[in-house]
Amino acid sequence: MVGDLLRTLRGHRPSLEDDSIKWRQGRKGSFRVKEAYSLLDKSNASLFPARGIWVDRVPTKVSFFAWEATWGKVLTLDKLQIRGVQLPNCCFLCGCAEENVNHILLHCIVARALWDIIFGLLDIKWVFPETVKEALTSWRGSFVGKKRKQIWKSIPLCIFWTVWKERNRLAFRGGVVNVQRLKNSFVCNLWNWAKVYLGEEAFSLIGFLEWIAST
Ligand SMILES: [Zn+2]
Predict the structure, then answer these.
(1) Which of 24, 29, 109, 199 has the fewest CB atoms in 10 Å of its CB?
(2) DSSP notation for 141-208
(3) In this predicted structure, what is the pLDDT of residue 8?
(4) What pLDDT is attached to residue 4?
(5) Ligand 1 centre and the CA of 105: distance in Å?
(6) Percentage helix, strand, coil, to 5, in the chain?
């Protein structure tokens, strides 16, 4: 927030004219809180992680789900409760926390098992942001190089989609989560997406994982 404020103020600093300070963005050169707030609001809007959502060759339904998740529009149990549906709120995946979109996609221990595959391959640590929007905004991967950038951008989307499908399977069909099967599903989904735009690195699953790990 402070960074946004500084950026905004740098771009719209007042000018000194005729020995008086004028606010360039304000009507008649005067400072108005409403207009300053509006500038900050526009600044925040520009941080919407569109590039992290609409990623080339990622299935549209997956990007659309990520878009809904970013806006907090996914129908998780907390949202259903707000709409008046009488349900206990307990995460279908871990069974030990309340379900909301940020929990199931980022903070749930089951989702973390998928994130940890990638962090383990690359030997990196990531301080998890609070929200899906912040996660996609900060998922830049400047260290992975140009060729891996595409697959890097697909990773959060692939985790979101794999977790959401499993959550729905548990919610509508019942059963218990099988973390090992979920990990396999995630890695295979990612590999299948990568095959579309990778060459020989994606011929085998092991080769693909080694290629990711070799950044
Ligand atoms: Zn959970």
Answers:
(1) 199
(2) -TTS-HHHHHHHHHHHHHHHHHHHHHHHHHHHH-----HHHHHHHHHHHHHHHHHHH--GGGSSHHHH
(3) 39
(4) 43
(5) 9
(6) 60, 5, 35
